[in-house]
Amino acid sequence: MHIEYPGKAVILSFCISAVIHSGCTVGPDYKRPEVTLPQHWANPAPQGLETRREFARWWKIFEDQTLDWLIDKAISDNLDLKLAGARIAQARAASRQSVARFGPEVNASGSYARYQDRLEAAEPDRAGPQRQRAVETIVDNQYQTGFDAGWELDLFGGIRRSVEAGEAELEASAEARRDVLVTLVAEVARSYIELRVLQKRRAIAELHRKAQDHCVQLTRRQYESGFASSLDESNARMQAAETAARIPLLEASERQTIHKIGILLGGCPGALIQKLTPVADLPMVFPAVPVGVPSELLRRRPDIREAEAQVHAATARVGVAMADLYPKLTITGSIAYLSNSLNTLYRGENLLWLSGPTAKWRLFDTGQSQAMVHVQEALEEEAVITYKQKVLSAMLEVEDALIALAKLEAHRKALADAVQASRKSLQLARQLYIAGEADFLRVLVAEQSLYKEEDAFAQSMGDALIRLISLYKALGGGWG
Q1: Which residues contact 441 (CB under 8 A, 6 or more apart)?
Q2: What is the per-residue pLDDT for 4?
């Protein structure tokens, strides 16, 4: 139910109210949610990761021109990033719409109507005192044109809170795009490393297949000379076939990874086949990372800043809802011309005007306005909880990346030692087999062991680089 009170008394009372409440803004003021963070990370950073340096374009330290080109292309053409940009444009327009509510609203109108009316007139009757009534039908035109305006005075800050919420939501949209950028850069780099690892593993498999084919020929000659059994030749063929069977699977994975990178770059799956099919080495650089302290995540991570901006917007929306509990004052006015003839419409005697304040106060709405305040307060609480979840999730990502990177480095060094030992073992087994001092089983076991260790070492190199990328992403690198 709305009650309207126009008049001089209202003008006076609300002018006084406007002076008293000038600058009054209802609702809570925004404060950043408090989150207790440790002073240091639980897992110590691997050696070399505490160096302070710029890491906005962290992938440059790999010194890989192909990777640089892929990331630049993804930033330019990725559809998810363009979608996030479109959302920023929407939020910016919505923010301007909120600001526009500070000004008056003016409308122009015009109308034309043709109407018919009936007039009755009493006339004397010559036959007696009775009178008869004459009926006259009148048909005429009516033209009207003019302007009307309304200006709501923001006495209790509802519009100001709405503008504040719009600005916070615009900031959240910008941070959301930065978060998409961080994820995109990390995903392109990760996929590129996975591709180079697959190519390395395929090269290892092809090298071992050639060695195993040579071993098949060797055992055949040994068998034909009576120095080996047919079982040795069969085992050699079996091992070569098993290695050859792995190659098509690795080739399929390579092509699928190229397809994935093509989509990340906003193109067709096969757009990069010609560019990425040639084999290239894995980057071997393990650069310093600005790990810093946990509290720095609050400023580094775009997703955390996005969640914080959402808290700000939700807090402001509480003020918008609370402002609806108070009176609203609108200054209205209208000017119009009304005439039966279009030629005489704009004459002075046809001018009509009206101006004055209108006050509205929702006195009773069965609790709808108060319920809306409670809804917005619950949404604010939800936004605060989401913010805290984002902070804890970010800390988890960094801690996991740190411990994984540290342990993977030790794992990689152990595998490198295992590869050297396996190569030496295979060389000795072959020499003993040719000299007739060992059976072929030792050669098979040594060959399988070497292939397994070299394949695992290639994967460990890729895993270490991927964990390094994950650490950069967890720290919020790649958006500046």
Answers
A1: 235
A2: 42
